[in-house]
Amino acid sequence: MKPVNFLIYAPSTEDPSGGQIVLYALNDYLNSIGHNSKLVIFGTRIKYNIHNTVVIYPEIIPGNPLNSKHTVRWLLNTPGVITGKSQESTWHSKDLVYRFSKSFNCKRKLDGILRIVDYKLDFFTNDKKERNLDCVYLVYKGNRFFKEFNQHPRNAPKIDDHRKNLALMKEIFNKANFLISYDNASYFNVAAALCGCNVIVIPDKNISQEEWGSTEPTMKYGIAYGYNNLKHALETKKNVKEYLQTLKEKDEETIQEFIKDCSNNFNI
User: Fold this and answer.
1) What's the whole-model pTM score?
2) Which of 71, 108, 193, 198 qualifies as a cystine partner to 95, CB 3.0-4.6 A?
């Protein structure tokens, strides 16, 4: 397949988020396999050949700010969840629509899954240090689902303010025996398990364990969905890294299919 030109519309690194991370990761991966991909920061104008370039917008972007001819909408969440208002009505009927996860949906026809995660398997490791911290807890996006955060020990420190410092997060996960997480979709749950920490995700009453497991495949091993599921987490923690490596390979397959679809649908 000949190289494809991509422009990825993304926030700057000064606005770190899960969406920002995967947009940058996709850009890096596309370039690493021989395609021509560039990031365009939100609000930036750029000159490019619209006839042979695919523009990728996250679902929060209304309209077509880069005036692209070949447009992809990438659902990094269900439209409207982050912005409070869905932007679907501003998209063109010929836009391709891909979703990062099966848990994200919209009213438009979905063209497939496009998934990439920076698993950081060589960074988040169990350094076999003394675990002198009993428990920490993480709220992060859990404030969308919970009004009270009272299912962790009272003396457990909250670690949300350290999220931007990955080295410090790794240090914490190597010191703590338990992470109590109110965010059932955070990759920090997986990072903690990779570091040997025991992880308990507080269940959302509207999401069953089966539903959660199907939409969050990275958390199949080493993570308990509720205190009652702790035995499973302890018994499978040793499988986390190997399992994530297989997911990484599957993610790469979704990208290959996505590139083929772009080439065929846009005839470039």
Assistant:
1) 0.80
2) 71
